[in-house]
Design a protein that fits this description.
Helix content: 25-40%
Largest sheet: 5 strands, mixed
CATH superfamily: Sulfate adenylyltransferase
Order of helices and strands: HEHEHEEHHE
Number of domains: 1
Strand order of the largest sheet: 1-3-4-5-2
Structural class: alpha+beta
Number of helices: 5
Shape: globular
CATH topology: Sulfate adenylyltransferase
């Protein structure tokens, strides 16, 4: 079975797990991995699956360059690991736009990476954006706008 078939089967297992009171659209959401490498997708995907990572951010400029809409509250996503395999389904619970230099310690902690400190978050995201933004003709800036998203894992549910 290839990844697309595996992802579809994962989505169908999720739909089959719902009780009569639960309602989600039957259309399969987008499947994607965190970061810009299979290793990062695996590491961050596992943090999400384990309930450690409950937030993420992206540069507004990346959405603009790809002509993609910002995430919306209530939107679902299938998070994939380093080999493109489905790990879990998340639901967006909050979306805010804020400058890089106004991200606070709580958001950094909720991103769940490194030692979860704001200093660690700033260093890791400076490195990430300095590496990825030139691909869209942009450079890192302390005041660059970020799409800051909080989410919760809805499948599989923690036991």
């Amino acid at each position: 079975m290839d990844n697309q078939e595996t992802i579809k089967a994962f989505w169908n297992d999720f739909l089959d797990s719902l009780s009569d009171e639960q309602s989600f659209p039957s259309e399969m959401p987008e499947a994607w991995g965190f970061g810009d490498s299979p290793e990062m997708a695996e590491e961050l995907g596992r943090l999400v699956l384990n309930g450690i990572k409950t937030a993420t951010c992206s540069a507004v400029w990346e959405y603009e360059a790809e002509n993609e809409p910002f995430p919306k509250t209530g939107e679902l996503s299938i998070v994939t690991g380093g080999q493109g395999e489905p790990l879990c389904i998340i639901e967006t619970v909050e979306v805010t736009i804020r400058p890089y230099n106004e991200v606070d310690a709580q958001f950094a902690y909720d991103e769940g990476e490194g030692d979860r400190s704001l200093a660690c978050w700033r260093e890791a995201h400076y490195n990430f954006f300095s590496r990825t933004l030139p691909d869209i003709g942009r450079q890192f800036s302390e005041t660059m706008p970020l799409v800051c998203e909080r989410f919760r894992v809805i499948y599989p549910q923690a036991s």
